[in-house]
């Protein structure tokens, strides 16, 4: 019985072995098939990640381009509202706009349009008006002052599709004065997208919020202006989020695509970066077929243990290839970018630096790798940057953007803007930070210049009316808090209209500059402020100054201007330019019912009293009260 059982066992052994071999082969083939499908998913996810990086970068480029246009538009609007839209100002602005357009290749056109929709400046002669255009109606009907990004339209100048950014400017009375318009050409954006080599049949499309195509690469001329607003990207509720992956069949060329979309958080723009799915999966498909045939041959020729070992080796090789491919993609994007890309380790030393570091900070990558990442940052800015890096190392912050000053090898220092993002290991632990840095020194200088223009009178160099009003409120509050006095002088050039009529407006401008320089000489304390109040009228704010001190300063100014000896033959008060001065002083803490306007009114009344008394003299507000009393016989 035992022998029979043993023989039966021997006879079943081939079956068992065959079953074991079959089961093992099926298991190996099943495992291999599952891994190939996972590899396919990994390829798709890698493409989604790559498209996400491209979409974010190009969305940032589009936002930066519109910001650059808007900074120029804001400057023009400020100039128009300050100087008006007279032909002389428009002539100067026309030259400025032409120079800006030539200097910045992304600017297609810059123009000023009056309140009727007529061109005040344009690259050529354009007969049509823009009163019916959407952006013009928007600014005409709305008093809001923010920038308006319009739908893509064909330019009236050269027929090119453009996206416009515009701002309203007002007349002196606050009514609608017209529009300052800037545009970026679709052709420029399409050419810029050609720099990103993400596949032979890939595409990058920038669209307006309603689905109108602004620019596309490739075949920009064929698709620009089309509207794809009826596609799921704009209608499917699940896709109405700021960004995400999107697999679809293109309505433009019928290709099945893997893509990533990014909606701008600041402008009505949508960026869609795509790659052809068949093209993307072709290498994987060819490799997968080869690998499966190889596994089948191994199953037939070698033992199960050998097959397992080979499979483990294949798994290791695939992992190594995936890591090499990821590193190659990262280096391709980093080294092809004009921005400086760096990788910072947990020890805050640089592990990787892209070649553009030579342009951005003046040092080559091999000179920076291994050094402290924050070593070149300005001492005043370093604590803020250090705090951000510490938070990212702890995992408290995933992404951050910071602006700071940094040492440059050839220049003293430059302004950099860095976008930093945490990188993690497979287990989720933070292993460093990737930073993308760009030089924004020119932008910072422009911002500083615009800030100066906003508070400074362009003719005299003194503070303008806006700055005067701001400082008056500040000094009034300070005087109220400190229980101190506040003095104000109002200064007016005598018979200035006659001076202009006799010597001409250029000489009048010279006269105002001389008067302004003389007044500025009397600004002897940090808190004093000399300002051009309007026309030929000036003002001088004197904190912590009583009426007597105010009068002394006013007399010095009046005498200094008279002693300057500017010839004024038609001046009844003398052969040279003279001024009338009105002064007032008060203690805000004592005169609780008074306000800033009452101080200005008191000094202004004193100024008119000085004029009525024969000009070329100083009159304080207290003297006016005495004169009124004497006139009434009290």
TrEMBL record:
It catalyses: 2 GTP = 3',3'-c-di-GMP + 2 diphosphate. Keywords: Membrane, Transmembrane, Transmembrane helix. GO terms for cellular component: plasma membrane. Residues 484-623 form the GGDEF domain. It is an enzyme of class 2 (transferase). Signal peptide: none annotated. This is diguanylate cyclase.
